[in-house]
Amino acid sequence: MRSLLSFFVLALVAVVHAISVGGDRLLVILEDVADKAGYSKFLGDLDARGYDIVYETPKSETLRVFNLGERSYDHILLLPTKSKAEGLGPNLTPNILLDFINAKGNILLALSASTPVPTSIVSLLLELDIHLPPDRTGLVVDHFNYDLNSAADKHDVLVLPPPGPLRSGVKDFFSPAPPNGEPIAFPNGVGQTLGQGALLTPILRAPSTAYSYNPKEQGEVLDDLFAAGAQLNLVTTMQARNSARFTVVGSADMLSDKWFDAEVKRVGEKTGVKTVNREFAKAVSGWTFGEIGILRVNWIEHHLNEEGMSNASNPKIYRIKNDVTYSISLSEYVWDKWVPFTVPEDDELQLEFSMLSPFHRLNLQPTLSSEDSTAYSASFKLPDQHGIFNFKVNYKRPFLNNVEEKTTVSVRHIAHDEWPRSWTHTAAWPWIAGIGATVTGWLGFCALWLYSKPVAAGVGGKKTQ
User: Fold this and answer.
1) Percent of the residues in the chain that have a pLDDT greater than 70, as a whole number
2) Which residue has the higher pLDDT, 234 or 15?
3) d(CA 276, CA 307)
4) Membrane-crossing residues (predicted)?
5) Does some domain include residue 172?
6) CA distances from residue 52 to 18, 26, 45, 49 in whole angstroms, order as listed
7) Would you place residue 454 in the very low, low, confident or very high pLDDT band (cuts 50, 70, 90)?
8) 285-323 pLDDT, tens digit each
9) Residue 450 domain flag
10) Residue 10, pLDDT above cutoff 90
11) Mean pLDDT, the chain, as a whole number?
12) Which residues of 150-174 are buried (b: 16+ CB within 10 A; e: fewer)?
């Protein structure tokens, strides 16, 4: 009875802490542990969602991101610190943070224009092809989209609509549901520009009227801007090839208690509206820490699709021109449970049947659905080419973890006893008739020759009387 009770307790603990597929160990780095009071709502939401939070400072002597070669934490939240040239200390160097990402750890980085970005963070961002202003304190302002209540003079509190879908065919994880027109407040923020890296994806872009500058060095006339308009990214993500996630939030203040439920007044409006910073922060942190946008492959199955043949699952060898069916089952993790994965509109989940290059590229169609998964299938005829082939599903989309599944099979030629008899092909009938005529003629000739004995000549001369 005691063991049964212990089992149920452990199961309950597992359910409570199964908030993130990547784990629940969260390291929060602050300049001072007391600074967490300014982010109590944001951190309280993380705690309520089941994270085991550890608070440390960059100068902590007990801080260890790795222990015996393994990650000590599953996720890291970096809030602004006052560290300058010395960076974040020997335990949070760019190499260590990159090793953390390579070990499938997730990082959420928050910046602030009032605090210079540590040099180690600048170096880390450069490794990821994310660029900050040279002064490390560039301020984003907008003279057309600002809060009249708090930034009537400096215009450094941007009032922005929630981001919509990145493009057609990409899932939208960061818009409030349902959308009611509430804005996002982006106060005292630092903008970023992105390189050509294919792994980088912006979540929130600056409006066309925004720009970044250093208010301490530049006067009213701005000759050289760091970036302006859509060049500026306010919230940027990077998903590594191992599906580890890294997010840069240009304004740490937007995560603070002050702006979670603040009321802002847009230019040209008479009444104020509440922000959706809390919902947006939940979506950004949930995506970064693996609570949304996670795909799982449940099973893969392929078999012959021919009558009278052995249709065993996942055979190792096929024959050329076989009819086969391939199926893959996918689930999507949404906050605290697995649900069936649905391919977005204007997008396709594709199967490649390839050797060195694809012989077939087919769209997989949903064929079977359950409470927590959807199976996608495609049927096709194998090419007239023997060799080593791969069933490959390579599904890589923004904001979804990578799905790359490859199953190798052999495709043999047709055996001698598997060819159909010639008389079943109408095109062979003239040749068969020619062979029959030749054989018949030869036999007739032989018979005629054998039974056509020449007449024997007479013996002696003429008979006399």
Assistant:
1) 90
2) 234
3) 58
4) 428-451
5) yes
6) 11, 6, 12, 9
7) confident
8) 999 999 999 999 999 999 998 876 667 888 999 999 999
9) no
10) no
11) 87
12) bbeeebbbbbbebbeebeeebbebb
Is residue 363 scored above 90 in pLDDT?
yes
Backbone phi, psi, residue 53, to 5°: -95, 135
Angle between helices 94-102 and 119-127 (to 10 degrees): 40
Nearest to 300 by CA among 376, 239, 356, 242: 376
Which position has the token pair 């191992």? 242
Q: Which amino acid is at 359?
A: F
Query: How big is the CA angle at 250 (ends 248 and 255), to the nearest 5 degrees?
Result: 95
Asked if residues 96 and 154 have their Cβ atoms less than 8 Å apart, the reply is: no
Structural domain for 314, as ranges? 294-417
- Please report whether residue 459 resides in a domain: no
Q: Are the C-beta atoms of 36 and 28 separated by less than 8 Å? A: yes
Please report, for residues 83, 266, 400, the alpha-carbon distance to residue 296 in angstroms, rounded to integers and kept in the order given: 40, 42, 11
Q: Closest by alpha carbon to 17, among 289, 257, 287, 283?
A: 289
When divided into structural domains, the chain yields a total of 2
Instruction: Kindly state whether residue 98 falls inside one of the protein's structural domains.
Output: yes
* Domain end position, chosen among 254, 272, 288: 288
Q: Among all chains, which residue has been given the structure tokens 């015996």?
A: 68
